[in-house]
Design goal:
The chain is about 25% helix and about 30% strand. With about 525 residues, the protein is α/β, with parallel strands linked by helices. About 50% of the residues are buried.
């Protein structure tokens, strides 16, 4: 048992934690779309216009705020006109990025927008820069968002949709440093400015345009994009070329050629994973430092639109489908990321887990043949964390000198925490990453008195525990057994490899106005 004091300054409101940092990502990859989300109207599985009904129900439980589509790498070989009109007339294509399989385009623009409407999620559409044209992207924006009369509006009406959709988020390509074109940063920065110029606001639909940003610690890429913003300002052009830049960061326990298995991992692989997950914070802070030099007012947002764990695929599955199991280790990685997003909420405006169903760190594992649907441990972290959506972040300090573990000469903290306040209630997220030792944590509330308390915890028997069709609830939240309360503190015991959210009603909290 180790001791930790978690100091929560409930009376020092910080930035709002945008619900959009809990966003998701659905790419035409493996069985994420076909067999996961989309089963077709003729499927024996209950569906809503071809969209699997139980998947919709489950995703509603985690209040999906936005959904990124159609990729990922697939976005830069996707031509949107192939995915509209009668399905039986849509041309086929080959998905060269993911498995070299045939794509029938049955899930296209109308189907994606219908999914977003069912979920109450904001669409985040990624346009094709790598193999597309400026005109193609401009016409897609017009097709989706314009009313009145125009060639694209007339085409949309002919395809059965009278009114335009609301599309707030627009991506200017994906990973142009790699599969999106193998470009140099300066080349892409110019293209981003060009493409963004022709992504127009139609009517009252205002696009939040996101430039495709860096991989991990490529700070020079972020600098090139921010310089493009500064150059336009210096030339006194109206507005900004784009409203945000992105960054991609994946957590692995091995190397990119040998990532290790999703299950059955050893202690060394586990701790390498934790080290890698915790490294996201200094990397994001350095990107933010670059942004601050060019944008001290903080007008440009940072979007982490691909993050999550990446393991070797499950044995017997297509290597190009990136299908992996999901354990409590993955759930802990998610919890650590959310703490970071909360701490950096003044600049991190959106994030998208890769990916929603059946791919990488999925929240759902769906089998179209058997009809089974499994909520993964990561799903439960998302569901437990909905209390932070659009709440106000407050400062948290963890004092736990004995709660460390040495990895490669580095002392990793084993306790992580973050907190938010809304409507007189404080929610504190607490994570114990140590797979062997419990933590006796005292949550010290400053600036208010402690009222009623409660909480839920995710703490399975082992850090390698996972859910499957024949044991769907091995990893599931339960109420916290005992919470010791004083007027200023809440004491909670965190078992090994545990994630908890503690709810504290606040009395005598000063009015921030």
């Amino acid at each position: 048992m180790t001791d930790a004091t978690v100091i929560v300054n409930a009376d020092l409101p910080g930035p709002t934690i945008s619900r959009h940092v809990y966003g998701h990502f659905a790419e035409h990859l493996g069985t994420c779309i076909y067999g996961g989300i989309w089963v077709g109207e003729d499927s024996p599985l209950p569906n809503i216009g071809g969209i699997r009904a139980d998947v919709v129900e489950a995703l509603r439980e985690i209040a999906v705020p936005n959904l990124r589509w159609p990729g990922g790498c697939f976005a830069d070989e996707y031509h949107w006109r192939d995915g509209v009109g009668p399905r039986h007339e849509r041309p086929r294509m080959v998905n060269t990025h993911w498995g070299n399989v045939e794509e029938n385009n049955h899930f296209g623009t109308h189907e994606f927008m219908a999914l977003c409407e069912l979920l109450g999620a904001d669409p985040y559409v990624v346009g094709n820069v790598g193999s597309g044209t400026v005109r193609e992207m401009s016409e897609w924006v017009e097709y989706l968002t314009r009313s009145g009369s125009s060639p694209m509006v007339d085409l949309r009406r002919a395809n059965g949709r009278e009114e335009p959709w609301r599309v707030p988020f627009w991506g200017l390509g994906n990973e142009p440093w790699g599969g999106g074109g193998n470009m140099r940063a300066e080349v892409y920065a110019d293209l981003a400015r060009q493409y963004a110029t022709f992504c127009k606001n139609h009517g009252d639909n205002v696009l939040y345009r996101i430039a495709a940003g860096a991989s991990e610690d490529d700070y020079a890429w972020t600098e090139a994009l921010m310089r493009a913003v500064a150059d336009m300002r210096a030339a006194q052009f109206p507005g900004r070329p784009f409203e945000a830049v992105s960054v991609h960061y994946y957590t692995i326990g091995g190397t990119w050629t040998d990532k290790g298995p999703a299950t059955g991992f050893d202690a060394a692989a586990y701790w390498r994973t934790i080290r890698r997950a915790q490294a996201v914070e200094p990397i994001l802070r350095r990107h933010i430092a670059v942004m601050d030099r060019y944008d001290p007012e903080g007008e440009i947002g940072l979007v982490v639109d691909e993050w999550g764990t990446w393991w070797d695929v499950e044995p017997g599955t297509n290597p190009g489908f990136l299908h992996q199991q999901n354990t409590m280790r993955d759930a802990i990685v998610a919890a650590l990321h959310f703490d970071v997003f909360h701490r950096l909420a003044d600049r991190v405006v959106m994030a998208n887990l890769a990916q929603t169903v059946n791919v990488l760190q999925a929240v759902l594992l769906a089998d179209a043949e058997t009809g089974t649907l499994v909520r993964t441990p990561t799903f439960h972290v998302f569901e437990m964390s909905t209390v932070h959506h659009d709440a106000v972040a407050v400062p948290v300090h963890v004092r736990a000198p004995g709660a460390t573990h040495e990895v490669a000469g580095e002392a990793l903290p084993t306790v992580s925490a973050s907190a938010s306040v809304r409507d007189g209630v404080c929610h504190v997220s607490l994570t114990n990453v140590d797979p062997e030792r419990s933590v006796d944590a005292v949550v010290e509330i400053r600036g208010a008195r402690v009222g009623a308390v409660g909480g839920r915890i995710l703490a399975p028997e082992s850090v390698g525990a996972f859910n499957a069709p024949d044991h769907p609830d091995d990893v599931a939240p339960r109420p916290v057994d005992e919470l010791e309360v004083t007027p200023g503190t809440v004491r909670v015991t965190l078992p090994p490899h545990a994630f908890a959210v503690v709810r504290v009603d606040l009395h005598d909290l000063p009015d921030p106005r």
